[in-house]
User: Fold this.
Amino acid sequence: MADYTDLAHLMADYGEAGMVRRFDALNIKNILYLQAELVHLEDELAQTEIRDNTSGDPERAELRFSVYKLKESAYAENNHQWQIYLECRKKLKEYNDAVLQYLSLRNITLSTANNVAVLRDWLERYGDISFPEGREGTAWNVKEDLLSLDPKPTSKDGLTWLLGEVLVPLYHRLWGSRNTVMLSQTFDHAQWTDYKQPVSHRQLGGIWQYNQVKLNAIADYISAVLAGLLPSLSILILSHVSEPVWKLITIFSSTLFFAMVLMVVTSASRAEIFITIAM
Assistant:
């Protein structure tokens, strides 16, 4: 039966399985609460400043002109302006840190649906009903809130996404899982798939890892073939079309199809696609 040590080893050795909650709602609520506290402190500080300025006491009225006198006034009776400001400073730091940390979390890539499914399956098979215990087991149930701890960059082009998130899982379900070897063995990295030992001290396996580098290479090969084939195919079709109207229709269709393929198989921006087609 697995425990947190096994789970930590799994996430460390199998990077795609590393994922934790972002706690979106809880982080935002924390920021909102800090904001509310600051609103009250800001108002309290403003009211204290007004009272000092209109008190008729020359020393208190001069506090706005000197930070040194303002700090010294903290020891005077019934003068709390500096203490309130120090509370504001402390709360501002908490607030700013919370906002910046949350913005940093928002920039971290979310785990993919397939990786979430793999981790849940591992927990069900090796954690049984005892791990994670109780409510702790629900931490990985909100897939839209799970941050990836895998530092490797993920490709954004449609072809790589199609290979990694659709075709490979489909291949694995239909055929790959019956024709590959479990993680209990270590294989040469030159093979079609790349396997690692996720939890060596417990021999807990059951996960296949397909080499993302090789998947990216396959996507590059397909892109290169399409880049060379599509223009030649358009010329070949045009050579067999004699009617001017049909030639125009063929050119229009070929250009449109080329633009759609370019959008799917590359990560080019809309401006880059427009410039390429216009040329």
Summary: Residues 180-203 have pLDDT under 50 and may be disordered. Strands lie at 19-21, 146-148. The first helix runs from residue 4 to 13.
